[in-house]
Write a structure and sequence with these properties.
heterodimer; A: CBS domain Like; six-stranded mixed sheet; four-stranded antiparallel sheet; 13 strands; about 35% helix; globular; B: mainly alpha; amino-acid transport (chain B); MetI-like_sf (chain B); transmembrane helix (chain B); transmembrane (chain B); ABC_transp_perm/SBD (chain B)
């Protein structure tokens, strides 16, 4: 869907040449979320902004849907790509409705279609369409503003979305909430998304694939799990952190592990006391491990969403993960 | 909140000063002169308004378009030059401008209009530049990234978001203009300056104030009208900024 072929960006300042992006080759499949991850100044935002030609390409080609973006009309190209930025970029002089309907209006949709689209998007974002219609951006909280920013980018129903640290300026609680919303919406819409982030946890949570950059070079492009279990070089290890094995636990759910435990269902809870923690089978393994470590007996009840006890999980069960590739566990899902 | 209270205090003290001037005018016999010569006053006021409105409208047209022009990326490099030129122009006193222009355009109201126009350019130009340059760059970036054309960015994003500053410049310029237009009398441009300068040469405070009071009332009412216009053209989304001012 999006193909970067040998893409470079060189800035010339006087006699100096600074290479911001260095011969990048990358392919992003349709319906996939690819997170560009790296420290600031690594060229990830530059690369993103080259896709809708906000930054010109020095060398190489970018193809969207098999077409070289250089051959496309810039305005048409941008209208066919959703664009979300960190500072949300909402237009303060326009109402929420006008903000969201900018692209449909430019695309010349008729009034009734624009109106239905607005209602549809607001409901998708979990906001009441009529309550916000005539309000202005400054009246909204940061989280709400960012949701409007995402809704606005989705308005023209573009197949491709570019998101430049969309949740970067929000507080951790709201950020996590919006990340979950994002996952839910993406599951439904299946857009092709390029997502810039400097937050490793965010990248692991949202990306189908992660591309790690360092000073303009692509270090590794792989699934989150591959990056955590087989980091290609020291730069990647340094960036994702020494706790990568713990981070890996966030990729798997309790149900993925327990299906591999022999005798899981027949085990008995050793002491029926209030100290035996309850672990939901939808929790991540990281959460589960944290709960088990806090328990004096090192074990916990696994329950489903209806609070039915499914069995018992122990700290020692995590041994199973040491030499097993998580894909093998996931295969059972 | 304290900001709003400040504004209130300033407004009230301003009204007190105005009422004091009106009382003084009353005791000096200004109103007697007005009552005796209503035709003169009406004629001169009309002339004054004509001077101010023609020069102001021309100044707004030229200064705003010049401001828009030199904030375009292509002409950005001229910004410094234009601003310096305008600043230097502003240091020339209005009276000197009158004298200078007079030698080319001769006596009469067209000379006065030109001088007033020239004098109004800078505040509007400077505010237009500041307004457009201060529009949050992330808004422009978002607009461009969504596929707005340059014209759409100007009309839908830059101008509406800079409107508060632009209107501020216009209000300042027009109100100063009302005062400066009194000088037009000196080169035969007419206007309420006629009464003011006649009063000065005759040592007659009454006649002088008969010119001054209408100028004050004119300035206040034009500012009030422009304030109302401002509410119409500035989006409610920027209201938060308005409340703070």
């Amino acid at each position: 869907m999006i193909q970067f072929k040998d893409v470079s960006k060189v800035y010339k300042t006087g006699d100096k040449e600074v290479t911001a992006v260095n011969h990048i080759n990358l392919h992003v499949d349709e319906g996939e979320t690819c997170v560009f991850l790296g420290p600031s100044g690594c060229g990830k935002t530059t690369l993103l902004r080259m896709v809708n030609r906000l930054i010109s390409i020095t060398d190489g080609t970018i193809e969207v849907n098999g077409k070289d973006i250089k051959d496309m009309d810039t305005i048409k190209l941008r209208r066919s790509i959703g664009y979300v930025i960190q500072q949300n970029g909402l237009f303060p002089n326009m109402t929420i409705e006008d903000n969201i309907c900018v692209v449909p209006k430019m695309l010349g949709w008729d009034q009734s279609k624009i109106k239905t689209r607005y209602n549809e998007l607001m409901e998708m974002m979990g906001l009441n369409p009529d309550e916000f219609r005539k309000r202005f951006p400054f009246e909204l909280s940061g989280g709400q503003q960012q949701r409007i920013g995402v809704a606005r980018a989705l308005a023209g129903d573009p197949p491709v979305m570019l998101m430049d640290e969309p949740f970067g300026a929000l507080d951790p609680v709201i950020r996590e909430h919006l990340q979950n919303e994002f996952k839910r919406i993406q599951k439904e819409l299946k857009k092709t998304i390029l997502f810039v982030s400097h937050d490793v946890d965010e990248a692991l949570r949202l990306g189908d694939k992660i591309a790690i950059f360092d000073s303009g070079n692509l270090m590794q492009h792989d699934t989150p799990d591959q990056i955590l279990s087989n980091p290609k070089n020291d730069k990647v290890v340094e960036f994702i952190g020494q706790d990568r094995m713990l981070k890996r636990l966030t990729l798997l759910k309790v149900e993925d592990l327990v299906s591999h435990i022999v005798g899981f269902q027949t085990r008995q809870v050793r002491e029926i006391s209030n100290n035996t923690p309850e672990v939901s089978n939808q929790d991540t393994l990281k959460t589960a491990l944290s709960l088990l470590l806090a328990s004096p007996v090192g074990e916990g009840k696994v329950v489903d969403e209806f609070q039915n006890v499914l069995g018992v999980i122990k700290v020692s069960d995590f041994d199973q993960l040491t030499n097993v590739h998580p894909d093998q566990l996931l295969a059972a899902r | 909140m304290s900001n709003r209270r400040m504004v209130g205090v300033i407004k009230v003290s301003l009204y007190v000063v105005i009422v004091a001037i009106l009382l003084w005018a009353y005791f000096a016999g200004a109103f007697q002169f007005i009552v005796d010569n209503p035709g003169d006053l009406l004629y001169l006021t009309k002339q004054h308004i004509k001077l101010v409105s023609i020069s102001s409208i021309l100044a707004i047209l030229v200064a705003v378009s010049l401001g828009v022009f030199i904030t375009r990326p292509k002409f950005k490099k001229f910004e410094g030059v234009v601003m310096n030129f305008a600043n230097v122009g502003q240091t020339v006193p209005s009276l000197a401008i009158l004298a200078l222009v007079m030698s080319y355009l001769g006596l009469g109201w067209q000379t006065a209009v030109f001088a007033l126009w020239f004098n109004s350019l800078l505040p509007i130009l400077r505010n237009t530049l500041a307004g457009i340059n201060n529009v949050d760059s992330s808004i422009i970036d978002a607009g461009r990234g969504m596929g707005m054309k340059e014209g759409q960015i100007l009309w839908k994003l830059e101008l509406p978001n800079a409107m508060y500053a632009i209107m501020g410049g216009i209000r300042t310029a027009v109100v100063i203009n009302v005062g400066s237009a009194a000088l037009a009398f000196l080169i035969g441009g007419g206007g309420l300056g006629d009464l003011i300068f006649t009063g000065i040469s005759l040592y007659d405070t009454g006649i002088m104030l008969a010119g001054t009071v209408p100028v004050i009332i004119l300035a206040i009412s034009i500012d009030f009208l422009l304030g109302g216009f401002e509410k119409l053209v500035i989006s409610k989304g920027l209201k938060r900024d308005l409340d703070m001012a």
